[in-house]
Each structure stands twice: as structure tokens, then as C-alpha cells.
Amino acid sequence: TAKFSLVAGDFEEIYGGESDPDEPQAGQWDAILTCFFIDTAKNIVNYLRVIHRILTPGGVWINLGPLLWHWENNSTNDPSVELSLEELKVLARKIGLEISNERVIDTTYTNNSQSMLGYVYHAAFWTATKIL
Question: What are the recorded GO MF terms, alphabetically (predicted)?
């Protein structure tokens, strides 16, 4: 009976990039999990607004991942917004998310256990509750 969504496509297009009060996804999700995701944003402000808007009051956003900002120094010169972790947390709070359970988790993204080479990311983890 639980609603679940896993969709391929542009996050802002699928879940409503504009601040439309009639957006069918608005206030529909009790929890959102983002894993190695938020640094794919051209504009993280838009991602945070969408996350906030589609959460129910008291809904929880759980995040894990690095901030490697995929659009930084892109070859097409598309403008993008890249924030530090601290700047991102300040913005999330201003948008109406209360951040808790913050920590850094060392993790891999893809890995070959039989290889001598491996990459470890110092990934940011937090939970955030919609308070406004």
C-alpha cells in the first residue's frame, strides 16, 4: 500500500521545477532518499526547493553522497551553482529543512573487490525534516 517512485529522467521536470501550488507532487512524499545525487544539479537551489515542496510537513529527506558538482568546469559553459557543504546546509535551513544526524561516511561508488585500485569517497550523510 506504500507509494514508491523510481523514475529515470530530469529530477526538476518529473517532480516539478517551478513553484506551482497545483503541482501534483507537492506535499506527497513522507520520505526522500538521495544517494550520490544532489551534486548532479546545475542549480542546487532548485533541487532543494523541489525536495522541500514535495515532502509532507514533517517529512524526512535522507542524503548520502559527495559534492563533486557534475556541471563544474563543463565543456558547454553551462552556468551552474556549486556550494560548499556548509553553504548547502545553511541554504537547506533557510528553505525550511532542519538538518540532523550529520556525519561523514567513507564509502565507494563502484568497486572491484579483486582490484588493487579503489576509490573511497568521504560522503556527507544527513537527515533533514521539513519544518516549514
Answer: carnosine N-methyltransferase activity
In a domain, 10, yes or no: no
Domain that holds residue 94: 24-130
**How many domains are contained in the chain?**
1
Q: Cell numbers of 62, please? A: 535522507
- Bridge-based pairing of strands 55-65 and 97-107 is unpaired
The answer to the question of residue 56 being in a domain is yes
Q: Which three cell numbers stand for residue 30?
A: 513522507
Q: In whole angstroms, how far apart are CA 54 and each of 20, 30, 120, 129?
A: 11, 9, 32, 12
Taking only the tens of pLDDT, the chain with its 132 residues reads 777 777 777 888 888 755 555 667 788 899 999 999 999 888 899 999 999 999 999 999 999 999 988 776 666 777 778 899 999 999 999 999 999 999 999 998 888 889 888 889 999 999 999 997
Distance CA 130, CA 53 (A): 9
